[in-house]
Here is the input.
Amino acid sequence: MSDLSDLLPHLRVLAAFSETGQVTSTAELLGVPQPQVSRSLARVEDLTGLTLRQRDGRTVMPSRAALELGATAAKVLAQLEVTLRDLKNELRGHVSIAFQHSLGETLVPAAIRNYLLEQPGVDFGLVQGSRKDCISALESGRVDVAFIAVNPDSLTLNTTHIYTEELVLAVPEGHPLAERTEVTSGDLTHESLIAMKHGLGLRSTVDALLEHWGIAPQVAFEGQEISTLLGLVAANLGVAIVPRRNYSLPVTLIPFKNRDATRAIVMITARGRALSLPARLFVESVQRYSPDVS
Here is the structure.
C-alpha cells in the first residue's frame, strides 16, 4: 500500500477509537482535543477509502473497518513498545573484552570511551593477558571481543585489522645511537636487549623479526609491561624494541631502516557465535573510530 507510511501518525487514534467506541472518549484517553481526533479519522478515511465512523442516532461509533484497523494498530503499538523496552534493556548490558598487555595503554581505553559516549548504560569486563590467553578467552566464550597483535591463524575467528603499529628502538638518553635518525638490524648486534617475557605477544613479534633479520642479540632482562622495559632502558641497562608511542620515561626512540619493523593490531570475534546487541554495537564503534580499519 503506497500510503501506508501516511497511516503511521494515526495508529494511536485508531487503536483508541476502536477501544473506546466514541470520539469524545478517544480524545479524553489520548489527552487531545476532540477535533484533532475527528481530523485524524477523516485523514485515514481519505487514505484508505474506508468508512471508519457510523452514526447510531446522534452517537458516532466505529465501523467494522475501524474496529479491525484499530485492533491491528493496537497490536503494532504494543509490539513496538515491547521491542523498544527490550532494546533499552539490552543496551544496559555487558561487554567483555580481552587484550594484550601492550594494548591496554591507549587502544582499549579509547575504544571504551568512544563507545560509552554513545551507549552510557553498558558496563565492561576486562581480561588482560598474553596473545594466547586472549584467543583462549574468546574461543571459550569468556569474552565477546579481543584485541591482539598479529593476525591469528584460525578458521574459527573473525578478524578486523585496526591499524599497523611501527616498532622502534628505545635507547637511553646519551646512548651512542641516540643521535641517529635511523638504525638498522646490524646496530643491535652488540647491544643488550631488554624484551618481554616469552609467551607475550610483543616478545613473539620481536623474536620473529630478529630471526628474519638473522641476528640474535643477548637478552639481558625480561619484563611483562612496556613501562618496565623502558624503565630498564632509561636506567642504561640495555635497549628495547617497542611500539612507537608517546612515553613519559627518558628514552630516545629511533625508527628502523628495515621497513618490516611493524606489527598488525587486530580485533577478533568468534565466528559462528552471535554477539549480544551491546557487543555488536561495540564492534561497530571500534570499526567506525579506528584510524586504519580494513
